[in-house]
Amino acid sequence: MTFFLSILRLARPSLQVRCYCATPNPSSSTPRLFVGGLSWSVDERSLKDAFSTFGQVTEVRILYDKDTGRSRGFGFVYFSNSDEAQSAKDAMDGKALLGRPLRISYAIDKVRGGPVVVPRLSSEGEATS
């Protein structure tokens, strides 16, 4: 990140960038996988069945659209320990479930109100903070 900011400042010396970092949440000790690319026909039961071969799945959540009630195409799978989550991630990433390839990564805690590193441009095209 520091290297990127140095290059960016060389290219545009007037650019001001603010960096904000979120500290990891120590209370989130439950290994959680983000599962993207879900078919609309996948439900919590079928997702749990697909991942339970790798260890004890403690919880499954699929997010649904509040207007249509249809799956938004992603969800979260919680495991009892990190070794089981790692083996599930390694084995299932890119594999098809009901005809769609899954994209699996470790879920990160949602940071509310945490700014993102974004340089802002004024109306003259100069970067401002």
Description of the structure:
This protein is α+β, with helices and mostly antiparallel strands and 129 residues long. It contains three helices and eight strands. It has helices at 2-11, 44-51, 82-92, and strands at 32-36, 57-64, 71-79, 96-97, 100-101, 103-106, 120-121, 127-128. The chain has a four-stranded antiparallel β-sheet with strand order 2-3-1-6, covered by helices on one side. It has a two-stranded antiparallel sheet with strand order 4-5. The longest helix is centred in the last third of the chain and has 11 residues, at 82-92. 16% of the residues are buried. Residues 17-28 have low confidence and may be disordered.
Q: Give me the Rg, rounded.
A: 20 Å
Give average pLDDT, whole number. 78
**Could you give the order of the helices and strands?**
HEHEEHEEEEE
Q: DSSP helix count?
A: 3
Strand order of the largest sheet: 2-3-1-6
Largest sheet: 4 strands, antiparallel
Gap from first CA to last CA: 18 Å
Strand content: 25-35%
Based on secondary structure, the structural category is: alpha+beta
Poorly predicted ranges (pLDDT <50, ≥5 residues)? 17-28
- The backbone outline, from C-alpha atoms, is globular
Helix content: 10-25%
Count every beta strand, where a strand is a DSSP E run of 2 or more residues. Answer: 8
